[in-house]
Amino acid sequence: MRFKNVFRKELLLSFFVFFHFINCNAQDVSFAKKIIDTLCSNSMFGRGYSHNGNKIAALFLKNEFIKLQLDSFPSGYFQSFPININTIEGDVKLIIGKKQLSPGIDFLVDASSPKSKGKFKTFLIDSSFISLKENIKNLQGTNFSNKIVIIDKKGVNDKEILALLDGLNTTNYLKAKAFIYIQDKKLSWGLSDGQNVNNFPVFEVARTSLPSEIKKVTFSLENKFTNNYETQNVIGYVKGKLQPDSFFVFTAHYDHLGMMGNKTLFPGANDNASGVAMALNLMQYYSLPENKPDYSIVFIATSAEELGILGSKYFCSNPIFDLSKIKFLINLDMVSTGDDGIMIVNGGVFTKEYDKIVEINTAHNYIKTIKKRGEAKNSDHWYFYKNGVKCFFIYTMGGISEYHNIYDKPETLPFTAYNDLFKLILDFVKDFNK
């Protein structure tokens, strides 16, 4: 009887431990979902530069740092820096023939576009027109200032011609009222062109959204160009017990594309509210007294990544601590999937560290597949890497295909490998204590 009571107690204790383990891991995703929902809400305006969405998101993150009692460096939680940015404002309209198209769904406006409006006839450049290269050459200097040039690359395979067509709207080759590129691929917006203002608007239109008649186009849009817009990286750290002046760094960009006009929001759930959520989860863990690390853990939520990884570039040019003191850096960007495993950029460069993370994963069977790439200038790890910092850029693969469009929403995220990636990172960091 006594043996049975002991067995029951042990069974109940085991059940409690198991239940607590499941709850802790579920809580990681639950917390992440709340963070992602907040960052993708209408109140953040897509974390871009219209309506000060970028600043609202930065303030939210600063408050999260304070809640978690992260220390700040002497300069504070914000590292401010200037950017030049053009935003698409007002009510964006595009009517082709008699069909009014929906922004974000049927078409996109290039981020460098100026204020313009009107109704104009069109001039079509397609495969039949450019069957002879001379036709393109003969267009040089042609004045289309009262027409909209429509460019259809379908059926064009000549690389020289394709390059020329892509450059028509960035040179003085043609003088047009506006350019429209017909797109067969899924629409994908970007901000890198938005550091300057072009002389004419450029639209990208889905072929499936085009009406049969495209002889006339009506459009209107407004822009706002700001010199020296002040944005900011958000930085905090957990002080190490034994080596406070040595750092393990996590980076994740919190900015996204913002809004195109006053109605079309780009939420940026996977890119990169998910990376920020993972960083905050890690902050939660390391801020607990029982998890305090031997060396300091720094968290840098970068801005202006979508403009050309400008936030991390600024930090590396103006470091608030010695970059040589960084033991290792992990950049988290798009980590809410994982059906097909994870990719480690720089895995082919820092092979010792890559082999270690694979060894850990094999021992615990965390992630389905871990793949590696060489160096790549595709996220915030890049400038740290170019400044001699050992680093990985980790992103998850599979699950969703939405990227830089209005459909990258919180409800689409599967979180397939989220908890396991979290545990893999913890084990990898812990290995640096050995």
Would you kindly provide a written description of the structure presented here, covering whatever features stand out?
The protein is an alpha/beta fold and 434 residues long. It has two domains: 27-85 and 227-431, 3-Layer(aba) Sandwich (Aminopeptidase), CATH 3.40.630.10; 86-223, Glucose Oxidase, domain 1, CATH 3.50.30. The chain is 30% helix and 29% strand. It has helices at residues 2-39, 53-67, 133-138, 159-167, 269-287, 310-317, 351-364, 381-386, 418-431, and strands at residues 78-96, 99-101, 107-109, 116-125, 143-151, 175-183, 202-206, 216-238, 243-253, 258-260, 264-266, 295-302, 326-332, 342-345, 370-373, 391-396. Strands 1, 2, 3, 4, 5, 6, 7, 8, 9, 12, 13, 14, 15 and 16 form a 14-stranded mixed beta sheet that branches. It has a two-stranded antiparallel sheet with strand order 10-11. The longest helix has 38 residues, at 2-39. The protein starts with a helix and ends with a helix.
CATH class designation of the largest domain: Alpha Beta
Q: Provide a count of the helices.
A: 9
- Oligomerization status of the protein chains: single chain
Distance from first to last alpha carbon: 46 Å
**Which term fits the overall shape?**
elongated
Summed over residues and divided by their number, the pLDDT gives a mean of 92
Number of separate strands: 16
In N-to-C order, the SSE pattern is: HHEEEEHEHEEEEEEHEHEEHEHEH
Radius of gyration: 25 Å
The major sheet is characterized as: 14 strands, mixed
Helix content: 25-40%
**CATH 2nd-level architecture of the largest domain:** 3-Layer(aba) Sandwich
- Structural domains: how many: 2
Could you tell me the strand content as a percent range? 25-35%
According to CATH, the fold-level topology of the largest domain is Aminopeptidase
